[in-house]
Amino acid sequence: MDCGNGARARQHVFLLPEYLKDASKKMKSGLMFVKLVNPCSGEGTIYLFNMCLQQLFEIKIFKEKHHSWFINQSVQSGGLLHFATPMDPLFLLLHYLRKADKEGKFQPLEQVVVDDMFPNCILLLKLPDLEKLLRHVTEEKEIDKKKYYKYSKEKTIKWLEKKVHQTVSALKTNNVNVGARVQATAFFSGDQVSSDKEEDYIRYAHGLISDYIPKELSDDLSKYLKLPKPSASLPNPPSKVAAQRQKRGK
Amino acid sequence: MESSDEAAVEKCRIHLRPGTLRDAAHATLHLLPCEVLVIGPAPVERFFTPAIRQGPDGLEVSFRGRRLRGEEVVLPPGLEGYVMVMEEKGEVLLGKDFSEGSSKLREQQELAAPPEALERDFDQFIRATASFSRFTLWGLETIPGPDAKVRGALTWPSLAAAIHAQVPED
């Protein structure tokens, strides 16, 4: 079987949406992994673009201690499982819109989405229906048939509230236990206690969405949703606190 | 895609060869409950596979003298599993996907975005070497069962779909 050169190289185990296989018939290129800013932590994170279908995917990694893969006639340490799932590009655009808002004026999108650290962010501008998406989180102006945008916190909070409710429905249909305060990252280490109060669902969904927005916005959303302040017995995981500190230090 | 590779991709793009998604042969995967600190060939078919037995409530095997109990995990519908490997820089590409002849290649590229705009000299490439729709999940002494963390992770795509679906406008 497959035990030639390939077996010596690091092997990555991925789960991809099935339709990428069919879509790949029309593609000779345009499926690519790039590093972009993580809208929550501000750090670099790998995303997958499909330039043919004009889609963005996020990559999440399942990692548990003491695991390895046997792949055909080879062994791969780590036992990692990578998930590529569709991502709403608005979370990433929001990162740049909030940054540009410090200048406090209407700007064309290509002046907003600029990044020395992650120049591949220009690929975001190639995604379809951006104008429609941006309506959820910005005020816009049109001068000489050119669109200018400005971040709107009020609109963004309302958009996030809809996201929360949409996620609550999915949590219910998927029968996810929502007792403990969880974030999408914690989903991959699965510490859940069972409970089924509406408020728990909203808090859980808020936690999931908070993995895609900065802490500040997450707190504003929490107030808007009238969620009680998290108790001191449930502090942020250390990794997250560190990431925020680092961001503030910049 | 972790640490070692990551440093190299600040600016570069890692292009996934689309053709390899279609041509990938089926692979047999086992997720072991222990860390083998090695990457490389292993005679799985000689030592591991023939020792797998169907026990009263699941699969049984032993590895390094320890008893493992396992079960088949089928991927959720709509997902396809792939094993991917980074291509070495300047690797000579063999195999039918890349020997098709460049004129035909260029013709087909018209269908997608112009490649010269997306692929740059310093970019890297990754290819699918195998695909799978199920794997065997092993636990030490006991069957991992429905509470296994990897099973929880497998429900992530359906939840992610809801988080990232577009919301209706007012």
Please characterize this protein's 3D structure.
The complex is a heterodimer of chains A (250) and B (170). By secondary structure, chain A is of the alpha+beta class. Chain A is 32% helix and 22% strand. In chain A, the strands form three sheets. A five-stranded mixed beta sheet of chain A has the order 1-7-4-3-2. The longest helix of chain A is centred in the middle third of the chain and has 21 residues, at 153-173. Chain B is an alpha/beta fold. Chain B is built from seven helices and ten strands. Chain B has helices spanning 3-6, 18-23, 44-47, 102-109, 115-118, 149-153, 156-164; strands spanning 14-16, 25-26, 29-32, 39-41, 53-55, 58-63, 66-74, 79-86, 124-132, 134-140. In chain B, the strands form two sheets. In chain B, strands 3-10-7-6-5 form a five-stranded mixed beta sheet, with no helix packed on it. In chain B, strands 1, 2, 8 and 9 form a four-stranded mixed beta sheet that branches. In chain B, a hairpin with a 2-residue loop joins strand 5 and strand 6. The model of chain B is unreliable at 1-9 and 92-113 (pLDDT under 50).
Topology:
The complex is a heterodimer of chains A (250) and B (170).
Chain A: E1 11-17, H1 19-23, E2 31-37, E3 44-50, E4 55-62, E5 68-71, E6 74-77, E7 81-86, H2 90-100, H3 109-112, H4 130-134, E8 138-143, E9 146-151, H5 153-173, H6 198-209, H7 215-224, H8 238-249
Parallel strand pairs in A: 1-7
Antiparallel strand pairs in A: 2-3, 3-4, 4-7, 5-6, 8-9
Helix pairs in contact in A: 5-6
Chain B: H1 3-6, E1 14-16, H2 18-23, E2 25-26, E3 29-32, E4 39-41, H3 44-47, E5 53-55, E6 58-63, E7 66-74, E8 79-86, H4 102-109, H5 115-118, E9 124-132, E10 134-140, H6 149-153, H7 156-164
Parallel strand pairs in B: 1-9, 2-9, 3-10
Antiparallel strand pairs in B: 5-6, 6-7, 7-10, 8-9
